[in-house]
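Supplementary Methods. Inverse-folding protocol.

Structures were first reduced to a discrete structure-token string of length 246. This string, shown here, constituted the complete conditioning input.
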């Protein structure tokens, strides 16, 4: 009875039980806020950009591989080299033209996928905007990742010089290798160096929200790992393109 009087309005300072109840209420409110943030992350990535990151990778890998391998398969590469004997110019021009087109299309597709996804989710009364935390980064980063995948395939094509082999290699690196790594005891050490980890990191709007991201670098750092790998592969591909016969 005394405890009730003390916790009642005007009855004095709250009892320990009253303070404990207030703290529990605050914790529940924080969990609801955290759950809302996680829902936003799901709406952005799973609801809007997952199709772009999965299907976009497949499409851009095929196109990136064919920029060079199509000429090798038809023999037109010899004609190109006769018209422009400076091989480095051909290699750089093809890479630059493909990058410009791939980036423009990827950006347009990323924003279209985002707005379309949010329009479809509007009936659930849960949606996200580009002004939300890290939402714009997730959309633009997804487009940049798709572009890098295309450049990665372009460089691999310069090394392999066969369309089917290049596409198979890229699918293995982007889709099969992450599954195999997850089954190894060195997963935590290897996952951050996989190309596909850049997609997970750069498209996340709530970072380190779960154990699946705890072993990755921060989003732009993880993206930089993939960019560095692509740059190295481009150098190797360009070197082989200069030295090998057509």
């Amino acid at each position: 009875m005394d405890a009730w009087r003390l916790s009642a309005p005007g009855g004095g300072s709250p009892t320990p039980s009253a303070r404990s109840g207030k703290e529990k209420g605050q914790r529940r409110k924080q969990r609801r806020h955290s759950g809302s943030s996680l829902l936003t992350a799901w709406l952005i990535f799973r609801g809007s950009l997952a199709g772009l990151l999965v299907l976009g990778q497949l499409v851009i890998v095929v196109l990136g591989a064919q920029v060079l391998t199509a000429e090798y398969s038809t023999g037109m590469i010899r004609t190109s080299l006769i018209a422009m004997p400076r091989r480095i110019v051909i290699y750089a021009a093809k890479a630059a033209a493909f990058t410009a087109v791939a980036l423009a299309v990827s950006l347009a597709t990323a924003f279209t996928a985002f707005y379309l996804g949010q329009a479809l989710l509007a009936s659930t009364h849960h949606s996200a905007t580009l002004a939300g935390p890290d939402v714009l980064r997730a959309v633009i980063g997804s487009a940049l990742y798709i572009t890098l995948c295309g450049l990665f395939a372009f460089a691999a094509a310069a090394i392999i010089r066969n369309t089917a082999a290049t596409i198979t290699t890229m699918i293995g690196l982007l889709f099969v290798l992450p599954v195999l790594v997850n089954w190894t005891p060195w997963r935590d050490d290897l996952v951050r160096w996989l190309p596909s980890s850049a997609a997970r990191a750069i498209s996340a709007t709530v970072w380190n929200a779960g154990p699946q991201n705890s072993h990755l670098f921060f989003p732009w750092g993880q993206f930089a790992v993939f960019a560095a790998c692509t740059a190295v592969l481009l150098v190797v591909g360009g070197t082989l393109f200069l030295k090998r016969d057509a």
